[in-house]
Amino acid sequence: MGVLAVSGQSADPTLIAEPHTPPALARVVVPAPAPPPAPERPRLISPALASALAAAMPAYDPPSAHPVPAGSAASGATGGPAAPKNGILRLPDYVVHDRKIREFSEREISTPKGLREIAVKRYITELDAALNAFQIPLFSGYSTAEDRGNAPEKRAMRAYDEQEARDRAAEKSDLEALDRMH
Predict the structure, then answer these.
(1) Which of 35, 36, 30 lies closest to 16, judged by CA?
(2) What are the phi and psi torsion angles at 157 (to 5°)?
(3) Pair 27, 17: CB distance under 8 Å
(4) What's the pTM value of the predicted model, to 2 decimals?
């Protein structure tokens, strides 16, 4: 079952049909018109400036197609890598000796408001927030209106500070143990 197709670039309709198909059942296909040519882009600089820039640039010198002989200065004679058989250039190994970038703690990076938000998310649970949503000023122990609304934040910051102090003490003891080993 082959397809008989006559095509061309003209705008004439093309008859597409299988062999032995009556002309009444054949499909007539009109080819799509050719796309219009792309519009010419305007130059961003004047022709005089383009020629001045082209004149100032060095002429392109393509790399030579001839490989460097194995006994030349580009091979292992200078202490560099030897020319490989497969033509892939190998660069010498480099070791970078530089100080590592210091890691910053949450306290150094965060603003006071951001630090409070981190502490509340870490140490105040939803149940705690629901149970402590309301306070009785007589028993809460906070004298100012500012302190009364921030009781959960203050407890969270106190827990955050205590945990940070424990972490610093553990790090200090690890360093002291490491120092004793040496």
Answers:
(1) 30
(2) -65, -35
(3) yes
(4) 0.39
Supply 150's token pair.
Answer: 């921030």
Type of residue found at 129: A
From CA 143, how far away is CA 156, in angstroms rounded? 19
Tokens 């969270």 correspond to: 156
Give per-residue pLDDT as tens, 18-41: 666 666 666 666 677 888 887 777
- In angstroms, rounded to a whole number, what is the distance separating the alpha carbons of residues 77 and 83? 10
Query: How far apart are alpha carbons 9 and 24 in whole angstroms?
Result: 24
Overall residue count recorded for the chain in this entry:
182
Domain ranges in the chain are 1-31, 106-181
C-alpha 92/C-alpha 38 separation (Å) is 48
